[in-house]
Design a protein that fits this description.
single chain; NAD(P)-bd_dom_sf; oxidoreductase; SDR_fam; Rossmann fold; globular; alpha/beta
């Protein structure tokens, strides 16, 4: 009789339901542990150090800002949407008890916004006494072609040209510092998958149909080429450059794509991403922190690391010096770097002199300057 009751209890809907839930949760936990990659935690105390993180209101950018704040760093959240930034910043401060987290508006598709951002960091009440690292995280993907006020397609403007201009405008300030500076670009191994630099159609004007994913791939390839070229130019200075691939990560990057606008396709994509090992941002941030702050990468430059923090090879097109030089020259022109630098120097009180005549700040250790780095 007692055995019958026990059997009935074990086979009841409630018992079966709870058992199934436990098995499913255990299976998910095991799967999540295997997909998270090797364990890593940054143990550095970052007190007194300052980091700029672009696109810090969501995804890996938000996780990066919070992890830096946990370790007592001063964090500048460079974000397009200031209202959203204020909300996210409040949560980070509450979670970390670090009040040295600041919102600064910087829209990477708007080149004037980038110059204003750098201007505020260079002079006035928001001036920074030092910068120890920059995380180029902000990125976008769109299902239709849109242009900024300069007439430049927004994906290439945000994912490459904005980072190019921001780095260029900060270069004088970085070079005159005595402390080492690490610049980290987030990228992906998708740049190795049937991806080529379409320099003749960088603005995505001539394709029969706009393919947002393909345009995104090409913009990330452009970013990788810039990163590699920058790493070559900053050799023997206080600046180093590393590219980090966080792997497939849960984010809202593709939220505007067609597949995300329909309920059924959105859930199918989630299932596929789950099966392919999509990671949570708190796990995906590991290679970013490793590249930005870990003592092991202190003297490294020009690396491309994967989600497990292992060095991965660059593609042939990234290693091609002519391709890098051609993209660099186009980027200088399209971003109007010279004009923005001159306007920046006027705004912060420096003499407004043509760039060819401008005395440039030289790094004391290498003798390199903004001009020799950007215009060689």
């Amino acid at each position: 009789m007692a055995g019958a009751r026990l059997l009935a209890g074990l086979t009841s809907p409630w018992s079966v339901g709870f058992s199934s839930f436990g098995l499913a949760y255990g299976a998910y936990h095991i799967w999540d542990s295997t997909q998270s990659g090797s364990k890593y935690d940054l143990h550095e105390d970052l007190t007194g150090k300052t980091y700029i993180v672009t696109g810090a209101t969501s995804g890996i950018g938000q996780s990066t800002a919070e992890e830096l704040a946990k370790r007592n760093a001063r964090v500048i959240m460079a974000c397009r949407n200031r209202e959203k930034c204020v909300q996210v910043r409040r949560d980070i401060v509450l979670n970390t008890r670090n009040k040295q987290v600041y919102c600064r508006q910087c829209d990477l598709e708007d080149f004037d916004s980038i110059r204003t951002f750098v201007q505020k960091l260079s002079k006035g009440k928001f001036e920074l006494d030092r910068i120890d690292g920059i995380v180029h995280n902000a990125a976008m993907m769109s299902n239709e072609r849109k242009v900024n006020k300069e007439g430049i397609e927004k994906t290439i403007a945000t994912n490459h040209l904005g980072s190019f201009l921001l780095t260029g405008l900060l270069m004088d300030k970085l070079l005159e510092q005595t402390n080492p500076v690490r610049i980290v670009f987030l990228n992906s191994n998708i740049i190795d998958r049937k991806c080529d630099l379409k320099l003749e159609d960088l603005n995505s004007e001539h394709a029969k149909k706009f393919d947002g994913y393909e345009v995104y791939k090409h913009s990330k390839l452009a970013s990788a080429i810039f990163s590699k070229e920058l790493s070559e130019r900053v050799k023997d200075t206080n600046i180093s450059v590393i590219v980090a691939d966080p792997g497939r990560t849960k984010s809202n990057l593709s939220a505007q794509m067609d597949g995300q606008t329909f309920f059924l396709s959105r859930w199918l994509l989630k299932i596929v991403s789950f099966g392919m090992g999509e990671r949570r941002t708190e796990k995906a941030v590991r290679p970013v922190l490793y590249a930005l702050c870990d003592p092991e990468t202190k003297d490294e430059n020009g690396l491309f690391i994967d989600r497990e923090r292992h060095t991965q090879p660059w593609s042939e097109i990234v290693l091609n010096e002519e391709s890098r030089k051609n993209l660099w020259n186009v980027s200088v022109s399209w971003s109007r770097l010279a004009q923005h630098l001159q306007k920046l120097r006027e705004d912060i009180g420096d003499a407004a002199i043509q760039m060819s005549e401008t005395p440039t700040v030289q790094n004391s250790a290498s003798g390199k300057s903004w001009k020799t780095l950007w215009l060689w």
